[in-house]
Every structure is written in structure tokens, then in C-alpha cells.
Amino acid sequence: MRLIYLVALVLLMPATTAKADIIAACYSDCEAENDSNVEFKACLSRAANKADRLLNQGYEALQEAVRKAAKEMDQPPESQLKALTDAQKKWIDFPDANCAFEDGLAFGGTATGGNCSACFSALSYERVTDFDRIKQQIIGE
């Protein structure tokens, strides 16, 4: 029983840590650093911009990993890169819709805009984590 608990703890720890990092980046850090709603929302917007840059870097790194893996296997990477591009285009639709929904939960109140930025940050960080998982577990980088 102890072994099962330990294995579960080890397997869940990275996800818990990553989730805590996302929450800190999206909410806690901005709350702790700002005294007004305007400053808080500006901080959330900067966090969303940073997350977007990391998302783009992660996407480019995954493309490069696909190219490298294809080269090592003496295969052309075009079909895998196209599949990645198609998947990413479809994924982009999800944050747009989901974050509009989350922002709407402010019902026009002062959290409007901030909810959207925090949502984009969270989903972008999660996607970067997906890219890292693919590179490590599937490609073997």
C-alpha cells in the first residue's frame, strides 16, 4: 500500500507543481504585487503576453524536435509538422472560446478583461507543458 501511495505521489507531484506555478503566474503574483484593480489587470495582461511568448517558443521548439527526430530516422518531417500545425490551429480556437466564457463570468464587473488574461495565461502554460511532454515522452528528447 505504501508503494502505491509513493508511486502516485511521485506521478502527481510534477502536475501539482506545474499547476501551482500556473496559478502563481496567473493570479497570485499579480495579486501580491498590486494594490488596485487597474494595476492587477495590467499585470494579468503582461502575464498573458509572457505566456503567449512562451507558447510560441514552445511551439517552435517542438517543431525543431520533430525535424531532428525525422532526420535521425532518415524520414521527411513534413507530414508530422503539418499535423502539428493543424492541431495547434484547432487548439487556438479553444482558448478563444473558453476565455470569452470565463471573462463573461464577471457579468460586466471589474474582473472583466482580467479573467480573460488570466485564462489565456493558464491555458498557454498548460499547452507549453503539453509540448514539453511530447518532446520528452514521445520524441525522447
Q: How is the biggest beta sheet arranged?
A: none
Number of strands: 0
List unreliable stretches of 5+ residues: 1-17
Estimate what percentage of residues fall within beta strands: under 5%
Tell me the CATH architecture.
Answer: Up-down Bundle
Domains (count): 1
Describe what you observe in this structure.
It is elongated and about 55 Å long. Residues 1-17 have low confidence and may be disordered. It has one domain (38-139): Substrate Binding Domain Of Dnak, Chain:A, Domain 2 (Up-down Bundle), CATH 1.20.1270.180. The chain is 86% helix and 0% strand. It has 141 residues and is an all-alpha fold. Helix 1 crosses helix 2, helix 1 (2-33) runs antiparallel to helix 4 and helix 2 packs parallel to helix 4 (114-139).
